[in-house]
Amino acid sequence: MTRLPLDLVTDILLRQPVKSLLRFKCVCKIWCSTIDGPDFVKLHLEGSLKNGSNLSLMFKSLHLYSIGFESLNTGVELDHHPLWDGFGCETEVVGSCNGLVLLENSPGKLALYNYSTRKYHQLPVEPIRMFERESDDPPYICYGFGYDSVNDDYKVVRMVLGSFWDSGEGLSSPDAEVGVYSLKSDSWRRVFSLLSLYRPFYHKYFHRWCGVLAGGALHWVSPRDPVNDRPNFIIGFDLRSEEFYRVSQPDYETYNFDLDLSVLGGCLSALCNYNSQCVDVWVMKEYGVKESWTKLFKVEQPRLQFLKALAYSEKGDQVLFLKNEEKLVWYDLQEKRTRRVRTACVLGSFSAQLCLGSLVPLSRSKGAEKLLDKKEKRNKNNRDDFLSEGFKLVL
To answer: Where is the F-box domain (predicted)?
Structure first.
């Protein structure tokens, strides 16, 4: 075969899925160094984000499963993830960003995992200072995970909410402990309290404990105050400045709904559930601009207790939803009807997280990330499989 210029080979490789690229690294040292290079990793990630390729869904049912977004029929059980304990029932997928997922199976046991490369990094244990005495009430803990593009750093946010009392204006909490983990420094630090933001509001817990990532910030919903009939409000956490703020919302016709958050088409999405009969789907098309909130459509079905938007279809004419944490459905934007997706590997109630396959490393320091080598193919077998398919190029 005619020798190809390296820039042309690189352009071809950038169009390949992650699974193929991991095998192509076995072809020669030049390909391996190219694919591992930070510029290649960044360009491949940007291409996947732009084209909506290399997508999959990660499910938490009795175990963790990964299912390709193209088929959504059969999946692979992630039976040897970093927090695998032989049973796997307790591990939760807290968040996903740029191919990395945050796993948690106890308040102090967290791990970042690139499920494509099978590399992981276990976070250092950070004790909860507010609840060091045995007499303290059990804490309510919320997590979030995202990317700080300004500082090129992946961060984990942990909010620990304290005990509650009746202040005469609804239930109030004395304080909250907020910690931020930086992957770049591999350390935790504490940021200022949430007290000033939520003192007047009822929040026995933050609805949907996993933070929603959009616009370079994480978001949670505070529940409605049943005492004073105050509406839901959205709390944002800027990953760059590490500050909390209130997020502006649309001008709803009424506040008689339960609010959930999702991300749809890269935009923050608000889902307003009216008495389990219908859900209005809003998106903030320009993050931080109140006037950019747009009502996209309404989903009307009986017993619609919970709806989470996951992604648009390839043609953009359907939206994939998780309904009532028990089924996946495609919603046709033209016909305004839903069609159930049959997933053979998931039974009972489950959660779902949209994930992106990538080559993003967990550290620039050698030895700081580990390779999960169980059930891993040897390099020799990868090379033999690759050459047997006739993809050999001469450099």
So the answer is: 1-43
pLDDT digits (tens, 9 = 90+) for 188-233: 998 876 545 554 343 444 445 789 999 999 999 876 655 555 667 8
Reported pTM: 0.84
3-state secondary structure the chain: CCCCCHHHHHHHHCCCCHHHHHHHCCCCHHHHHHHHCHHHHHHHHHHHHHHCCCEEEEEECCCEEEEECCCCCCEEECCCCCCCCCCCCCCEEEEEECCEEEEEEECCEEEEEECCCCEEEECCCCCCHHHCCCCCCCCEEEEEEEEECCCCEEEEEEEEECCCEECCCCEECCCEEEEEEECCCCEEEEECCCHHHHCCCCCCCCEEEEEEEECCEEEEEECCECCCCECCEEEEEECCCCEEEEECCCCCCCCCCEEEEEEECCEEEEEEEECCCEEEEEEECCCCCHHHEEEEEEEECCCCCCEEEEEECCCCCEEEEEECCCEEEEEECCCCEEEEECCCCCCCCCEEEEEECCCCCCCCCCCCCEECCCCCCCHHHHHHHHHHCCCCCCC
Which structural domain, as residue segments, surrounds residue 167? 37-364
Residue 360 falls inside a structural domain: yes
Residue 175 lies in a domain: yes
Count structural domains, the chain: 1
Domain assignment present for residue 389? The answer is no
The CATH number of the domain holding residue 350 is: 2.120.10.80
